[in-house]
Amino acid sequence: MELVRVILVLVVAVADAAAAAGVRVGLTRIHSEPGITASQFVRDALRRDMRRSARFGRELAASVGTVSAATRKDLPNGGEYIMTLAIGTPPLAYPAIADTGSDLIWTQCAPCGKQCFKQPGPLYNPSSSPTFGVLPCNSSLNLCAALLAGASPPPGCSCKYNQTYGTGWTAGVQGSETFTFGSTPADQVRVPGIAFGCSNASSDDWNGSAGLVGLGRGSLSLVSQLGAGMFSYCLTPFQDTNSTSTLLLGPSAALNGTGVKSTPFVPSPSKAPMNTYYYLNLTGISVGTEALSIPPNTFSLQTDGTGGLIIDSGTTITSLVDAAYKKVRAAVQSLVTLPVTDGSGATGLDLCFALPPSSSSSTPPATLPSMTLHFDGADMVLPVENYMILDSGMWCLAMRSQTDGELSTLGNYQQQNLHVLYDVHKETLSFAPAQCTTL
Ligand SMILES: *[C@@H]1O[C@H](CO)[C@@H](O)[C@H](O)[C@H]1NC(C)=O
Ligand SMILES: *[C@@H]1O[C@H](CO)[C@@H](O)[C@H](O)[C@H]1NC(C)=O
Ligand SMILES: *[C@@H]1O[C@H](CO)[C@@H](O)[C@H](O)[C@H]1NC(C)=O
Ligand SMILES: *[C@@H]1O[C@H](CO)[C@@H](O)[C@H](O)[C@H]1NC(C)=O
Ligand SMILES: *[C@@H]1O[C@H](CO)[C@@H](O)[C@H](O)[C@H]1NC(C)=O
Ligand SMILES: *[C@@H]1O[C@H](CO)[C@@H](O)[C@H](O)[C@H]1NC(C)=O
Ligand SMILES: *[C@@H]1O[C@H](CO)[C@@H](O)[C@H](O)[C@H]1NC(C)=O
Predict the structure, then answer these.
(1) Alpha-carbon torsion 139, 140, 143, 149, what sign?
(2) According to the model, what pLDDT value does residue 45 have?
């Protein structure tokens, strides 16, 4: 009950800020340094992605026992977006991956010796921040609460977690801190009592960031803890390495313009980690005016929690179950007259065309129609630059095949220049084409 109160206070804190508008945060893409080639970027993204299989399971260990639950998150994969937020008193800014496919907010905490990765900027040291506290074991946000099975926590109890993602893990103790959000002083909001992971050991897969911010459906995510109700982002084009994308939390995230389409989220399975994910009802795909012959239940979420399609900011390249991927691949191939080339070594992608030697590295070599993802009640139109990727000498389909029956993922490459709103109260995803550099 105490936590409900804290959350209500947080809602007031957020509403107060920036004249009741909410929080605005800049996002930059990992690997967005000028000079990185598209193929390098995609290869990194996919290599990280493919390492997900062996690393299942979130393990929690408290003084009272251990539990495990599976996680299938493929993250990070090289094309994630980094947001800057600040932790503690005085606020220490740190870059973190913004991930709609998980919940835990975490950063590295000093002291952490050899098992910490090298992060940009200084380490947060809880012992020098008066607003730090260990998260009480009976807090409803405590990952170990289930282990207590209702019993009162032993004195001095703290929850040690080891959160495993598709491509790495992070371990530490759950704490509570004051966080500061916002890109500019006018936007800044300080929110006390945010539960977070104070990691002192991690795999080395997280470089470019100092942690992660979960924006998933669970109670530990930033969206849930702020009681923000909604958030939106607008991702600038991949080729644009100079501009900053935007993440909006709270009422200012609303999409007001024309051309806004909305589709309901499919209720998530109650099991972790699927309960974190935002599932969408994808009923078909068209390339140009041709509706591909994909059976309508191809992306259905099964009662055992398998299958389905999620939207994820923490994955780059969209994966489609093979039955659908094959149709997309064939349709694209039938429309392009350039010779097919094996680009898998350079990019990891499975359909690439060789560019004529004279072609420019920034202009698509042929016209291709847009691709439409038919969601329940809302068509998402992907212009060619959202599904093809151009690199020195090659033009490739920026999608991959997923094993039939597994989870499909709508990645961030496909969401460029779309303003995407997750309304967690209304349980809808809305989107509209946008020039994200001007948002
Ligand atoms: C947690 O335990 C402490 C001490 O036992 C108690 O004061 C507090 O009210 C409890 N909080 C919750 C949310 O149960
Ligand atoms: C966390 O879990 C991963 C994967 O199971 C394991 O490799 C790693 O050693 C664990 N880390 C800690 C600190 O327990
Ligand atoms: C991390 O902190 C936990 C809990 O305090 C401790 O048991 C563990 O030894 C620490 N690990 C490292 C690598 O410092
Ligand atoms: C990330 O880590 C890899 C391997 O550990 C290293 O080669 C690369 O330079 C690091 N990148 C950054 C930005 O630190
Ligand atoms: C990015 O900014 C730099 C410096 O301001 C400029 O030289 C460069 O042309 C810009 N690149 C793009 C793609 O706009
Ligand atoms: C949409 O309208 C709301 C309420 O009028 C406003 O706070 C918000 O800034 C607008 N959103 C955008 C993206 O312009
Ligand atoms: C998905 O959308 C289709 C078409 O609107 C509808 O018939 C079906 O019931 C929806 N499925 C779910 C799980 O919402």
Answers:
(1) positive
(2) 64
More confident residue, 367 or 48: 367
For ligand 6, is residue 260 a contact (CB within 6 Å)?
no
**Active-site residue flag, 187:** no
Would you say residue 128 has pLDDT above 80? Answer: yes
Which residue owns the Cα nearest ligand 4 atom 10?
A: 207
- CATH number listed for the domain at residues 256-438: 2.40.70.10
Q: What is the CA(69)–ligand 4 centre distance, in A?
A: 29
Asked if CATH classification 2.40.128.110 holds for the domain at 7-251, the reply, yes or no, is no
Per-residue CA distances from 298 to 57, 267, 268, 318, 398 (Å): 26, 17, 17, 15, 20
Whether the predicted pLDDT of 117 surpasses 70: yes
Atom of ligand 4 nearest to the CA of 205: 2
Res 9: pLDDT: 17
pTM confidence score = 0.87
Report how far apart, in Å, the C-alpha atoms of 413 and of each of 46, 47, 69, 245, 418 are: 12, 16, 29, 13, 11
Beta bridge partners of 177: 194
Q: Parse the chain into domains and list their residue ranges.
A: 7-251, 256-438
pLDDT at 219 over 70: yes
